[in-house]
Amino acid sequence: MTSGEHDEVCAVVSHLPHLLANVYLEAFFAQRKDRASLGGSSFRDWMRIAGSCPEVWMDIFWTNRHNLIRGIHELQDVLEKITQFLENGDEQALYGFLTRVSRLKEDLQK
Questions:
Q1: Is the backbone of residue 23 left (phi > 0), alpha (psi -120 to 50) or beta?
Q2: Which domains are seen in the chain, by residue range?
């Protein structure tokens, strides 16, 4: 694996999840701290990841920013599709998406 390939993989399997956890907390809890006590295990998983050492993650995000930007754009594309399914009331498309992801998860865990 080349160093460039390594950086691409790390962006997807490590850096983007950390970035998303930070964005999630900022977006939904910076002004609503009282809601955090209502979170379950999924929320605690986000909390575990978010807010890790700022100096370390600043360096990682900055150094690998080009791969992060590419990943963010890919995430935005998928979020836009999901938004359209919800806005258009397209239950079938949403169910198809969830089914594909469920199968993908099974394949990845093999």
A1: alpha
A2: 3-108 (1.10.3660.10)
Short-list 51, 7, 53, 58, CA closest to 30: 51
Class of residue 99 by CB neighbours under 10 A (exposed 0-12, middle 13-18, buried 19+) = exposed
This prediction's pTM: 0.86
Residue 93: burial class (beta carbons within 10 Å; 0-12, 13-18, 19+): middle
| Cα–Cα distance for residue pair 72/11, rounded to 1 Å | 10
How long, in residues, is the chain? 110
Condensed to tens digits (0 to 9), the pLDDT of residues 17-56 reads 999 999 999 988 888 888 888 888 988 888 899 989 999 9
Contact residues for 102 (Cβ-Cβ < 8 A; gap 6+): none
